[in-house]
C-alpha cells in the first residue's frame, strides 16, 4: 500500500485535493529556500541569526514577565528569572542590531547544545540508562562534543556547512514530497456511473 493510497482511502476527495495543493506549495517553497541556502549560505546564516536574535528578545521578555507575574514562586527564583530574562533580552537586542554578533551567538548556542547532548549521551552510555546500544551512545556523544567544539571555534565556517547540509536536505525532502503526492481522485463525468 502506498502513501497515496492511504490518503484516498481515509480522506474525502476535497481534502485529498487540498493536501496535494498544500504539499506542492510547501515543496516548491522548500526547494527555493534550499537552493538559496546552498548558493548563498552567508546571507542565509545572517537571516537565521536575526531570527534567533528575535527569539532571544521574546524569550527574555517572557522571563521578565514571569519574574513579575509568578507570585507563587519564591523571591529568589523570581529575581533569578528577572536576571536571566534581562541577560537574554540584552543578548537578543545586541544580536539583532549587530548581525556579526548574532551569527557568533547562534554558533555558540548551537555548540553548547551539542556539547551538552554529547555529554548526556556519554553519561547514558556509562550508566547504561540509554535506550540505544552503548557503542552508539559513545560514538554519538563523542561526535556531538567534537561538533560542538568545532562550532564554537570556527563559527562562520561551521554555520556555512550547516546551511549547505540543511539546504541540500530541504531540496531533497521537497523533491521526495513532490514525487510521493497523493493521487488525484478522478471525478466521474456527468452521466457516467462512478466506479
TrEMBL record:
UniProt KW keywords = Membrane, Transmembrane, Transmembrane helix
Cite the InterPro entries for this sequence.
Acid_resist_chaperone_HdeD (IPR052712), DUF308_memb (IPR005325)
Q: What domain of life does the native source organism fall in?
A: Bacteria
Q: Tell me yes or no: is Transferase among this UniProt entry's keywords.
A: no
Q: Which residues form the signal peptide?
A: none
The keyword Membrane is assigned to this record: yes
Q: Which GO terms describe its cellular component?
A: plasma membrane
Note one Pfam family from the annotation: DUF308
Segments spanning the bilayer are 21-40, 46-65, 77-97, 103-123, 135-155, 161-181
Listed name of the protein: DUF308 domain-containing protein
Amino acid at each position: 500500500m502506498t502513501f497515496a493510497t492511504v490518503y484516498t482511502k481515509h480522506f474525502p476527495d476535497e481534502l485529498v485535493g487540498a493536501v496535494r495543493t498544500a504539499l506542492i506549495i510547501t515543496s516548491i517553497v522548500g526547494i527555493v529556500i534550499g537552493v538559496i541556502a546552498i548558493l548563498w549560505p552567508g546571507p542565509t546564516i545572517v537571516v537565521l541569526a536575526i531570527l534567533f536574535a528575535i527569539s532571544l528578545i521574546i524569550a527574555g521578555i517572557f522571563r521578565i514577565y514571569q519574574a513579575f507575574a509568578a507570585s507563587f514562586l519564591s523571591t529568589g527564583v523570581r529575581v533569578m528569572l528577572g536576571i536571566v530574562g534581562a541577560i537574554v533580552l540584552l543578548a537578543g537586542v545586541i544580536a539583532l542590531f549587530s548581525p556579526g554578533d548574532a551569527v557568533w551567538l547562534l554558533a555558540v548556542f548551537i555548540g553548547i547544545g551539542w556539547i551538552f547532548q554529547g555529554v548526556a549521551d556519554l553519561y547514558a552510555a556509562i550508566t547504561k540508562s540509554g535506550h540505544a546500544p552503548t557503542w552508539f551512545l559513545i560514538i554519538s556523544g563523542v561526535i556531538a562534543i567534537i561538533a560542538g567544539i568545532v562550532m564554537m571555534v570556527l563559527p562562520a565556517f561551521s554555520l556555512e556547512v550547516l546551511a549547505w547540509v540543511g539546504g541540500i536536505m530541504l531540496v531533497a525532502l521537497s523533491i521526495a514530497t513532490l514525487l510521493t503526492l497523493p493521487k488525484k481522485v478522478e471525478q466521474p463525468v456527468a452521466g457516467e456511473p462512478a466506479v
